[in-house]
Predict the 3D structure of the following.
Amino acid sequence: MARTCVQNHPETGPTPEWDAEEVARLWGDPLDPDLLLVGGVDSYGWVRACRLEGVPPEILAGEYRDRVTWYRGRFRLQDPQGDALPGDVLPGDVLDRFYVSHYSPGEGLVLYPLAETPPPVPHLLLVPLDDTGFAAPPPG
């Protein structure tokens, strides 16, 4: 059965409690336990992005949060040049074949292939679509 949400790398360790607590304190809101640990802008970040029913498979919805960025909304799956996925990368297979590595400001979430074999693309992006989905950074 195909995955419906992004995954992190199978060797990703547990969430460092001190960092999770700091992010929750900075934003004034605890981290949802369903969020996955990934690389963040200046430390760790947490993400969840899942497919929605009734929308194209390259559109996912969820959130990303770290110490300086909090985004809640839709993401578009695309290649690094901003184009639709190449023909040999089916949107329905991406969540099974790629993992979320980190968040990159100006690009979005960066996904790398899980397989050791040469991938059809070096990496993919989940780009935030909703300008209003970004929260203002916490003060101080």
The CA atoms of residues 97 and 116 lie 11 Å apart. The chain has a mean pLDDT of 88. The first strand starts at residue 36 and ends at 39.
